[in-house]
Amino acid sequence: MSALAEPGTAARPEASASRIGLLRGVRHGLMLADRSIRSVVRSPATLIDTIIQPVLFLVVFAFLFGGEVAGDWQSYLQTLVPGLMVQIVLYASVGTGLALNTDISKGVFDRFRSLPIARSAPLVGAVLGDVVRYAVALAVLLGLAFAMGFRVRTGPVSVLAAVLLALGLGLTLCWFSVLIGMVTKSPQAVPGIVMAVVLPLTFGSNIFASPETMPGWLEVWVGVNPVSHFVDAARALLLGGDALGAVLSSLAWMAALFAVLFPLALRAYARRTR
Amino acid sequence: MTLAIQAEGLVKRYGETEALAGVDLSVPAGTILGVLGPNGAGKTTTVRILSTLLRPDAGRALVAGYDVVRQPVAVRACIGLTGQYASVDEDLTGFENLLLIGRLLEMSKSAARERAAGLLERFALTEAGGRPVRTYSGGMRRRVDLAASLVGRPQVLYLDEPTTGLDPRSRNQVWEIVRGLSQDGVSVLLTTQYLEEADRLADRITVIDHGRVVAEGRAEELKRRTGGQTLQVRPGDPADIPEVVRILTALTGTEPLTDGEAGLVTTLADDPVLLSALVRRLDESAIAVDDLGLRLPSLDDVFLALTGRPADEAAGKAAAPADTPAGTRERSAA
């Protein structure tokens, strides 16, 4: 074979573009977010996960342990619900890395990547679609909590702020899930690894019990654990009290976690999809 | 002659292992190239590079005139990819999958709908179009994968082992579709472990092994180039086999191979006068034969000669259905 001919110039202007514009990229991301939402709705396992988990946590912890921890389950419910908002989102974030890894191992990702769309679109789609999943899980949690007698002592704006804070945390920590999803070979390995981190973060926090009742070393850990700050903020926002300090430290944690996790996840994504 | 795909010296390394060690190939526009090779030969790596999913460590490739490394978006606008590693979403319906791809390709909603419905009809999936792909049979899955790669009316189509794991009927359906696409002017690069598939579908064949091209040409050329002709005799009475063997040994100077079960005696036939000489001697000895003839080696033989392994062993599973006369394996293996 002789030397290759010079690459042709494009007949169609859009074909000559070496990059996809931002606007088109966002549109592609939204289309793929729609796809991952449909996907969740269609696959019973993920849907059940999203709906059952909040129900289970609420019922088990309020009815089973409530009386023991707080004297009666009704008063335990008040402190439990804001904490569960944080926990639910953390648990749901496991699915983000799992779904991405499944897409890669099944070849769905390659299909998307062989199309003339923005390279980031499949990732943006997966993450945006999952934020909707987190929102559904939060809605189920709050809906059932209200039915069980949970009462907000602040106003709707504060509730919205608490929900946004929880979603923000999910949107931050999903990058950890993405990172794990990118570096593990098979989808089966993802939940185990993510849960190994999420479990000590959620149970080793002030979600279920007051830190003063714990041994010293655990109390120290709970104090350091960023999840506790989010729980403090959510409690203050839903039940009243000074929320500003806790919200600010939550936001600071979010910024710090994002600054570390997002570049790591993107690098792993770029490496996996090169 | 315009080239739809033109690749030169493609190299891809994973750490110490060299998946591709300098692959050259070309596909003239509107033709089908069969890329033949065992598992791990580098077929999929080649397809992934040519479809911009993977960057080569060295070498260059143009697809539809665009450079796969420097103009990946332009290449993606011209290609369709189907195979082991380019799949559709199993939770979505067939229709939804095709619609999504149409929308991602900037079609209007109505145009994307129309295209999706048209493709489903063409591939006999209209009825199944409303069901999640999860519920499809293997053959239907492959057809919807194919349809997904055709939404954008690609000029160049990659089919990475399109019939692996399919039953013969589904395989024939896929072959029909591929032939039809080629007639419509689509250029096709098809990888396969099946010699029969390459033989039946491809205009030209490139054989890859250990990341290198070991042969290239039309199926007929490859057969002629590697194996050489063989001569086969089947005596009417199997008791005559020893006598036939004696005659052939005398004529060629080497002992022929015998397949007692098939009653066949086979030898290399490089000398054009061998056939007439044999007929004379058989006549003198009054040996009646049921079958006597020269034949080109099958692609199985070619594969063995080029890679040093029989095709089915290299593929790790049953290769193409045996369309080769019994007895040729023995000769090839000798």
TrEMBL record, chain A:
<keyword id="KW-0046">Antibiotic resistance</keyword>
<dbReference type="InterPro" id="IPR051784">
    <property type="entry name" value="Nod_factor_ABC_transporter"/>
</dbReference>
<keyword id="KW-0812">Transmembrane</keyword>
<dbReference type="InterPro" id="IPR013525">
    <property type="entry name" value="ABC2_TM"/>
</dbReference>
<comment type="similarity">
    <text>Belongs to the ABC-2 integral membrane protein family.</text>
</comment>
<dbReference type="InterPro" id="IPR047817">
    <property type="entry name" value="ABC2_TM_bact-type"/>
</dbReference>
<feature type="domain" description="ABC transmembrane type-2">
    <location>
        <begin position="45"/>
        <end position="272"/>
    </location>
</feature>
<dbReference type="InterPro" id="IPR000412">
    <property type="entry name" value="ABC_2_transport"/>
</dbReference>
<feature type="transmembrane region" description="Helical">
    <location>
        <begin position="243"/>
        <end position="266"/>
    </location>
</feature>
<keyword id="KW-0813">Transport</keyword>
<keyword id="KW-0472">Membrane</keyword>
<feature type="transmembrane region" description="Helical">
    <location>
        <begin position="121"/>
        <end position="147"/>
    </location>
</feature>
<dbReference type="Pfam" id="PF01061">
    <property type="entry name" value="ABC2_membrane"/>
</dbReference>
<feature type="transmembrane region" description="Helical">
    <location>
        <begin position="79"/>
        <end position="100"/>
    </location>
</feature>
<feature type="transmembrane region" description="Helical">
    <location>
        <begin position="159"/>
        <end position="182"/>
    </location>
</feature>
<feature type="transmembrane region" description="Helical">
    <location>
        <begin position="189"/>
        <end position="209"/>
    </location>
</feature>
<keyword id="KW-1003">Cell membrane</keyword>
<feature type="transmembrane region" description="Helical">
    <location>
        <begin position="45"/>
        <end position="67"/>
    </location>
</feature>
<protein>
    <recommendedName>
        <fullName>Transport permease protein</fullName>
    </recommendedName>
</protein>
<keyword id="KW-1133">Transmembrane helix</keyword>
